[in-house]
Amino acid sequence: MAKINRIGVLTSGGDAPGMNAAIRAVVRSCSYYGITCLGIHRGYNGLINGDIVTMDARSVNGVISRGGTMLYTARCPEFMTEEGVKKAIGTCKYLGIDGIIAIGGDGTFRGARDLAAHGVPTIGIPATIDNDIASTQYSIGFDTACNTAQDAIDKLRDTMQSHERCSVVEVMGRNAGHLALHVGIATGATAILVPEKELDMEQDVIEKIRLGRINKRSHFIIIVAEGVGSAMKVAEKIKEETGIDARVTILGHIQRGGSPSAEDRVWATRMGEYAVTGILNGKSNRVVCVVNDKLIDMDINEALEMHKDLPNEMYLTSKMMAV
Ligand code: F6P
């Protein structure tokens, strides 16, 4: 097994609260093992351009509680070309980088797979507020994003209740409804619209609001996952069919910011250490996953082929609450 002296760490794709905690864990684990840690800026761009700094244990002081990513993040079209990958490999050789830890989502893991295929050991750490990575039950950032959205929607509820209105709230999630489902249950939503389930506007939304009115409900919260389509259209339909004043709030990027929750800090710390120890033990082309509440690692190619369903029992429970 080749000796590992220098490990690089990068964040790529959309940021997620807890990425800093993961970076910190990678840096501190490297210090613990007595090896050098290099911070790569702006995802795979930094590897192509050589935008890289040495990180010691003190360089990550206090970042555990900060949202965002101190290494910056970006999507990198150049890295999707053979030429881009070659440049990145050249940087690794030039700087003596013996392994890379890539923090992000599926796009980040595809990059890690390409580096591994060219002989640079890689391990991916799942971080996305969408929690849509199929190989892992949990991705860094999801819990914080749920709490941020919950906090905002609790505030919306106060004013919706006073004015007897309907709040239509669009939450992030790209093509997945995990964030919407969790947030919808946590905020007692009347309906949760997710891309994984076919939408019957009349039955899933209008009927529930009519029934709620009969049952003396004063206000309504409807959660729309961004992958479903326009929250504006949903609100217009509600107004048209029920006469209720429906207001739209798009939570947007506030869901990606903020100080990470304890849950995110702990998983991020554990995953960061797991990844460094894995590289030192000769692992490559692996992704760190939470399965049955335990950390394991999986082949990146296998992980990328997996499909994640929305937990159906949770979806059914959410529907039973809207009476
Ligand atoms: O993947 C995280 C995410 O926040 C998605 O929920 C959303 O669709 C997307 O990123 C937004 O990306 P950007 O910040 O590039 O607009």
How would you summarize this macromolecular structure in one to three sentences?
The chain is 43% helix and 18% strand. By secondary structure, the protein is an alpha/beta fold. Strand 1, helix 1 (19-33) and strand 2 (36-40) form a beta-alpha-beta unit.
Any idea what the CATH architecture of the largest domain is? 3-Layer(aba) Sandwich
Weakly predicted, low-confidence segments? none
Tally of helical runs? 11
Strand share of the residues? 15-25%
Cα shape: elongated
Please report the total strand number as a whole number.
11
CATH topology of the largest domain: Rossmann fold
- Decide which structural class fits the backbone: alpha/beta
Radius of gyration: 22 Å
CATH class of the largest domain: Alpha Beta
- Reading the helices and strands in chain order gives EHEHEHEHEHEHEHEHEHEEHH
Small molecules bound: 6-O-phosphono-beta-D-fructofuranose
Mean pLDDT: 97
Helix content: 40-55%
Strand order of the largest sheet: 3-2-1-4-5-10-11
**Domain count:** 2
Described by strand count, sense and barrel closure, the largest sheet is: 7 strands, mixed
Span between termini: 61 Å
